[in-house]
Amino acid sequence: MVANQPSTYPMDLTKGTSGLGNPNGRKNYRSAGAHTVPSPDYTVKADEVTGMGQGKHYPDLDELIAMRETLLKSANAAAGSTTYTSINSSSVPFHSSLGRKIINAPAVINGDVTVASGDHLHFRPSSSNADDNIIYVYGDIKNMGEIANLGVKIVVLGQYTDASSSTYNLSTQNSRYTKLEDVYKQAALVSFNQRKDAIKITSNSSARYGNVFAAAGGIDITGNLEINGVLTSGGALEYSPNQIWDRNYKSGSKVAYGGGVKVAPVNGQSFVVNFVREAKTFTVGGNGMTTPLALLEPIKADRLSDWQRLR
Predict the structure, then answer these.
(1) Helices and strands (H, E) in the chain, number of each type
(2) Which is nearest to 260 in space by CA: 304, 200, 187, 188?
(3) pTM attached to this predicted model
(4) CA distance 293 to 217
(5) Do the Cβ atoms of 15 and 261 come closer than 8 Å?
(6) Residues 183 and 175 sit within 8 Å (Cβ to Cβ)
(7) Where are the domains of the chain?
């Protein structure tokens, strides 16, 4: 999903040279498969693009600033919240009984999160209040290994980047949620960076991603993989210099700022999103947040009437 932007159509920011999705002439899009939990609510056919069925609000810059500040307040104020300077997986000890390297939510990380190649971090919800289970990262997330999201909202002000062999995956293992559909409802990877590659996925490991939300920027995908979940970009088509809050921004920078979901797998490979309906109920914000938020609205999977498969 991308925001309605001037001078173009949303699908123009979500296609390759050969059509919607991939630039290699293979299957370019796919509709949802079977429900994780069967339901008669939707009637869709295989390999069709499906739309939301209604207009959708995307937060403007003022709303985004309010959203990120409220999420920080929630993470700080939640009972049991932990503050870290930064996190490197090589320095995180194994949990004494679970045998995994675990970071419990709620938590605030004032620097970067780095997961080394061959290593892992599991982000685990510890609060009975789902709105409190936030991992708030001031810096970047560099995932060179494995991140398992057990049902938390990972909020990053910087970039999320990975490697071709790395993995990001939703899981019920050691989670307070025993059903996968509940993890889909609560888990998310949210970036407030305004770069067009605020969330950059180069991984070749297919996985359950759930909600991936570039709230102020874009998503850039070059990996050969399948993702189960929802990809959303709320960034504007472009930003003027006085609208850019990136701490690393410099006048004349070659970094591109703006929204969109760019899909361009390298070496003629393939990329597929399998829409998971359970993930559509995800919300950003709680604990009295009053800012109108895009993801608070329901998504209805009606077939689009004005798009067609190009390949």
Answers:
(1) 2, 23
(2) 200
(3) 0.79
(4) 16
(5) no
(6) yes
(7) 10-239+253-303
